[in-house]
Every structure is written in C-alpha cells, then in structure tokens.
Amino acid sequence: MAYVPSDGSQDMLAAFKIVVAGGFGAGKTTLVGAVSEVRPLRTEEALTSASIGLDDLSGVGNKTTTTVAMDFGRITLSSKLVLYLFGTPGQERFWFMWDELSYGALGAVVLADTRRLDDCFPSVDYFENCGLPFVVAINCFDDSPQYDPEDVRVALDLDPRIPVMLVDARQVSSVKEVLITLVEYVLASRPVPLHERAAMPPTPTLAAQPTAPQSVTPQAVTPQAAGTVLLPSHAIATPLAGHPVPAAAPDRAAAPGPFGDHPDPDEPSEPAGTGLRLIPYPPAAEEEATQSRSHRWNQRPLRDPGETPQPAR
Amino acid sequence: MPGDKWLDQNAGPVVRPYALTGGRTAPTAGTVLDLIAIVSATDPHERIGDVIDLSPEDRRILGLCRRPATVTDVAAGTELPLGVVRVLLADLIARGRIAVIPQRSAGEQPSTDLLKEVLHGLRAL
C-alpha cells in the first residue's frame, strides 16, 4: 500500500537516516514530504481545544493539525543506498522519541522559523549535546521577516563552522541543497585519516573562517582542568538511547591541520589519528552551558537589532 | 460486510494495536530492531497462503518482506504502530521466517566512502 518496492532488482544494502528537527510548526512535515518518494508516515491529529495551553499557536497561523507520531520520508539514492528522513515530533511531550531517532543518524537538519526563533533552541541544544552534526535551515515563510543567515547564526550562538542557510521547505531543489550541505558538512567534520593527511596541503580554511562571537560560559572552557576522560569519538557521536553523553561538540575539531594543530585555544586537543578525543569531565559545566542558550534568549534585551532578529514592525 | 457503512477510516482499528501482540510492548526475546534495520523473508518465494499458523498481520509483514525492507517500511506498509511491528517482527525472526540483513550496526558511523556515495546520490537527484 504505502510501501512500493523500488523497481531495482538488486537488494537494498545500506540505509541511512537524517533527523529533521525544529520547533512546532516550523515545517518539518513539509520538508520531509517535499523530497520523499513515499507518502509521509504520520498521524495528524486535529488541533482542538485540548491542545490549547499545550501547543502554543501564536504565529503559526491557521494550523489545524499537528504531527502526533512522526514523519518519515524515503529517498532511494541508488540501487543499494536508501536515505530516510525522520521528522521529530514537535511537541515537548514526545521528546522521548528523539534519542531513538538520533541514534545512528547521519546528521540532523534543524528547521528554524524566524517568527519564533527560540522554538529551535531545544533542537540545537540537543544535537550539540549528543554530538550529532547538524545544519540550521531557516524556513522562508511568506510572512516571516527575512534575515541574513549570519544574523541568525549570531542569534543562535552557533559554532562558526555549522552551516546556516535559507530553505523553502516546499521546494525539492531547496531541500536537496540542505541535505547536500549536511552530508558535506558531516564529511568535512571527519578526522582526516593519517595516510590522506600526508598528501594534503596545509589547510588554512579554519583560520580564514569568520570568527563569530562564541560566548561560552567561563565554566565550559576549562577542559584541561581537573578531570578529563578519553572516550572513543564514536561513543560521543552516537550516544546510546537513554544515555545522553554530555560531550563538547566534536565537530569543532573539523578538518584539523596536518599535525593535529588546532586553531581554537579553547578546544581540547585531539591526539592525531587515534580516534580518541578529550572531553571535559565532570559534565556539570556543560550542562550549564547548554542551559544558557534559552536562558540568554530570555534575558536578551528586547528590540536590540544587533542581537535578535525581532520582526521590525 | 453489511456494517461497513458505519466504519470508515476515522473509526480507527477494530482491534486495538497491542492486542495483536498479546499486550507485549517489547519483543519477548532478542534486541529491539532499529528503525532502519533491514529485514527480509527467509523464503521469499513461499506461498504464504498455504501456511496456516500465521495471523493476517504476519502475512502482510511477510508479503512486504519478500524484498528487503526496513522496519520503518514495514510499519508504514502495514499501517501498524512501530512498537507493534517490532514485536511481530521479533516473533517472526524467532520462528525463522524473517531474517535481519546485517549491515553496519545502528550506532556505528558509516564509512567515508559510503558517505561520498550518499552525497553523489543526492547530487544526482
């Protein structure tokens, strides 16, 4: 019925998944549906008075249904590669699903709605915490104020390496660009194997990156102090469900130089080629750092154009 | 059926989902299958209609698994909740009718070469 076997005669050999997250009403279902070759698997439930108080509809307009279970979409890339997109449930009461969806995922797309930017904070915090590479896609609603992606990056307090881009979730080509950017970013985040490093010219890319203000709380930037533990990098990248690893974002070690030199003095150094990474322990400082995004947002000075993309009305 | 006019899509299932699993919300034995674990019927050419000890849901699952399919695909194809499908699949695996096709384990990151293939596939869309 909804499942139509692909006409290729060869067996499916590898399946990948990408998580699509974002606030309630940010357009996750639309994005998944735009590129999927199957009808999205979802349970839409009418928004009724039972949702009032639970689901904040201000700014979402005339949305009358919401995704109760989950969206999934499928893209057959080749006879043996299939990509699945899973939309996270938008509402807080379904957040228990996130660990399962993120486990083993290739990466994540965080959909941001500039009308309600703070809605995507939990998603950004979540993927930063579990170390899943993600890109931020700003969904261009017709009535949403247009912002420069760099402004949104500042407002979200993102690592300068994390791609931030505009997307029209209804358009296949636009969504495709986002997915390509994500996979490219995942590839670029990988530590370069030793045998390839020798052939590579020194990479000045990181030094050339714009250094966006990265306000980390003072507690968070003491990784070498006191206790540090060595964890295999894959343990950080894919925490077990129910066991979130409060690791520092491992992507920050993206494309290290030939000898593992790291331009960011705040970052713990990674032993080159060992696949091991230093993360600060105990994680209490990190917990505080992750709380701070929503906290800072709530404490922000209102109508400060340099800090927050408030609608200029 | 004469009563059909009283039951439409909105009526929901006549049998509550977890009644199909005997009330179990987790597989009796074995590990919980990942969302994108690939399963396949051990005998794709078997005439399912000839087997008597299969429930209608089992038959639908086996029909979908004639070709390798992910757990998500099976859940979508049968229109059953994911938790139910996992339990039913685990039962069929225990009975030797379904096999899990090994690939990289769910927590393991794919190789760089595979990622490049994904990238290539996306660009070619």
- Helical content of chain B, roughly? 25-40%
Largest pleated sheet of chain B: 3 strands, antiparallel
Strand residue content of chain A: 15-25%
Strand order of the largest sheet of chain A: 4-5-1-6-7-8
Outline of chain B: globular
Looking at CATH, which topology of chain B would you report? Arc Repressor Mutant, subunit A
User: How many alpha or pi helices of chain A?
Assistant: 9
Number of domains as seen in the coordinates of chain B: 1
- Domain tally of chain A: 1
Shape of chain A: globular
What does this 3D model show about the protein?
The complex is a heterodimer of chains A (313) and B (125). Helices cover 25% and strands 18% of the residues of chain A. Chain A starts with 13 loop residues before the first strand and ends in a 15-residue tail after the last helix. Chain A is built from 9 helices and 10 strands. In chain A, helix 3 (121-130) packs antiparallel against helix 9 (284-298). Chain A is globular and about 50 Å long. Chain A has a single domain (11-308), classed as P-loop containing nucleotide triphosphate hydrolases (Rossmann fold, 3-Layer(aba) Sandwich). In chain A, the strands form 3 sheets. In chain A, strands 4-5-1-6-7-8 form a 6-stranded mixed β-sheet, with helices on both faces. With 313 residues, chain A is α/β, with parallel strands linked by helices. Chain B has 125 residues and is mainly α. Chain B has a single domain (13-123), classed as Arc Repressor Mutant, subunit A. Chain B is 34% helix and 8% strand. Chain B has 4 helices and 3 strands; from the N terminus they run E-H-E-H-H-E-H. Chain B has helices at residues 56-64, 71-78, 82-94, 112-123; strands at residues 38-41, 69-70, 98-101. Chain B has a 3-stranded antiparallel β-sheet. The longest helix of chain B has 13 residues, at 82-94. Chain B starts with 37 loop residues before the first strand and ends with a helix. The interface between A and B is large, with 43 and 41 residues.
